[in-house]
């Protein structure tokens, strides 16, 4: 979702993480907002750099901004830190890999930290874009991108009104991922 086809990540309006997400993160975070998202992304930056080549390859394949893929991996698994020692499993065993592909709906592909996994997860995300575009053709590309992110988190059932984050994890999934993506974009991704 690099520059124009899916919208420019730097042009997406975002409120960042909710205070609920910030508190769950710990490390002294209590208040939400863009600043909280940036702090969480900053904490994951060094880990995410080790996946930069994989992410870049997948981003080119799917014409997706690498910062967005990085942000999803940061939100979903803290760049692998939240799932180390679990064979890539999170979300009570339902999520798999850096980007936490939901095993209830998808057969996971590749090792939890592999290019095959990142490719599969990114394709799942990209496949939600036309669903959002069809349902909300009047939305800007940037708003449609937020809708696709929310659907990646909770399925297309979240797409019944404009408040796409109202039932996502932490009630902020797309807002937090966008804020993290903007941080990663400014920091080399």
Automatic annotation (TrEMBL):
InterPro entries: Glyco_hydro_23, Lysozyme-like_dom_sf, Transglycosylase_SLT_dom_1. It catalyses: Hydrolysis of (1->4)-beta-linkages between N-acetylmuramic acid and N-acetyl-D-glucosamine residues in a peptidoglycan and between N-acetyl-D-glucosamine residues in chitodextrins. Keywords: Antimicrobial, Bacteriolytic enzyme, Glycosidase, Hydrolase. The keyword Transit peptide does not apply. Residues 57-161 form the Transglycosylase SLT domain. GO terms for biological process: defense response to Gram-positive bacterium; killing of cells of another organism; peptidoglycan catabolic process. It is an enzyme of class 3 (hydrolase). Its EC number is 3.2.1.17. The keyword Iron does not apply. The active site is at residues 76, 91. CDD domains: GEWL (cd01021). It comes from the Eukaryota. GO terms for cellular component: extracellular region. GO terms for molecular function: lysozyme activity. Belongs to the glycosyl hydrolase 23 family. This is Lysozyme g.
